[in-house]
Amino acid sequence: MHGTVLSPATAGPGRRPGLVLVTGAGGGSPRTRHLTEAVEFARRGMSVLIYDKRSVGYSLFHRSYSQLADDALGGLAALRSQPGVDGAKVGLWGLSEGGWVVPIAASRSKDVAFVVLVGANSLSPLRQATWAVQAGLLRAGVRGSLVDRAELNMFRMIDDLGMFPEAHYDPRPTIAAVRQPVLAIWGTHDLLTPPLESPPGFVAALEKGGNRRYTIRFFGNAEHAAFKTSDGGVTPLAELAPGYADLVGSWVADATAGGAPVARTSGPVPVQDALTIPVHRSAWWESAAVQLVASALFLVAFGSYPVVALVRRVRGRSRAPVTKVARLLSAGGLVVVPGMFVYVMYLLMSGGEMAFPGPVVTGRPLVWLALQGLAVACVVATVRTALSWRRARFPIPRGESVRLWLLIAGGTVLIPWGLYWGLLLP
What we know:
This protein is an alpha/beta fold. It folds into two domains: 3-123 and 169-266, Rossmann fold; 284-421, no CATH class. It has helices at 35-43, 65-80, 98-108, 125-139, 145-160, 172-176, 198-208, 244-256, 288-315, 323-350, 366-390, 398-421; strands at residues 3-6, 16-22, 47-51, 85-95, 115-118, 182-187, 214-219, 227-229, 236-240, 264-266, 360-361, 364-365.
């Protein structure tokens, strides 16, 4: 792994404290990602190590906070060995995901002199991510079942598939094991970390572990990484929040001199439009396996109808008497099921502070309204198809009966499925 050390251009008397910057989520993040912070901290008298984050062993679907903590400790050892650095005064700074990683490293090594956290979470990653996307949708004006059902259930299914790494990691026991002085910073307009709920979690855990050498500080008009923002946290500006770098410099000086403040909280009250909610593991009937079986059923039930119709047409056979309404059910089912998965996954991947659900009418995105309307049409078409089949005035061939039975079965299963995902709810 490669890194760069930035130090003050003019060396003062004695050796300097050091700070290793541990970045947030994202594999292979370059060291230049935090060059702004590194320069400002170096100007406050510290030697600062920034390093390229690993990509091997880290991806969207696989990561280990324990491994990342070992990387941070490797950076700490490297910085402690640098000329002009006081090895007894080197600490770790962690942003966002780094707020889960740094406490692990600090709890493992007494070589960590102090801890600085920015936008950190005292909640589990799954609960934080669910809140971030939900909050982004609420800011975009979205209400109803898309937020209350579909978004939450999609996260649970992703977790059930094992595609959400470290989903249920509980940081509180590790925070309670941290014995070093802690400076924790949040922007009042943090849209990725719940800024009202995370700080009390840190305080409770530190107090439980008997560590009262902590400082909690909020910066007004600042976003997740404590950069200035003028639009409520959506877009960071190029400057750090006024006083942020000065606070880190003065606090590190005090902490390494044995004068870390005790149980201090200051700054404006943060803004959090919605509270987080617990994200429970899926029950068997809503598990990913059941969802996959249901999807396979829908594919066969709705897909076989047009395929058989095409074969019948090629062979020149007559059409069945319920073709029109059945065709609507088949086409609607083939659109609404994959359409729901694709749209909600898009919201999850582009959610949080950058949520863009498209045009919103009466609290519902037009895309979601279209999917809901199509789902209702499928339910009506299921009933009409069944009635038409029952009232048919002449015998229906056995092969036609089988595909109609499959089609009606698919439409029937679509009802509880649509309720679960919120397509048939307001």
